Amino acid sequence: VGYDMTKEAATNCFSKTGLTPEDVDVIELHDCFSANELITYEALGLCPEGRAGELVDRGDTTYGGKWVINPSGGLISKGHPLGATGLAQCAELCWQLRGEAGKRQVPGAKL
Fold it and tell me: Which residue range(s) make up the domain with 34?
């Protein structure tokens, strides 16, 4: 939703943990609009600015790619109920990390 605050949060998180975007297995992000999803890929450091389209074209954002992004189906799959979407994304990540996501399970998801 906000490129600058997403970039700052991601930078702080990776800096404090010593992790990088490549260490992440599964991502749930706010995809309220297709453009927001692309901007968020860049803000999270998944690709250089202006290269999010290439990330998608390579298949790096789905099963078999570098990351599985929004295995839940994203906001539209839930009807984007305001106020509940963030909670649903947190639940999806918990299920993924516990190995309880059923058919959506990202194999070996740890982070």
Answer: 3-104
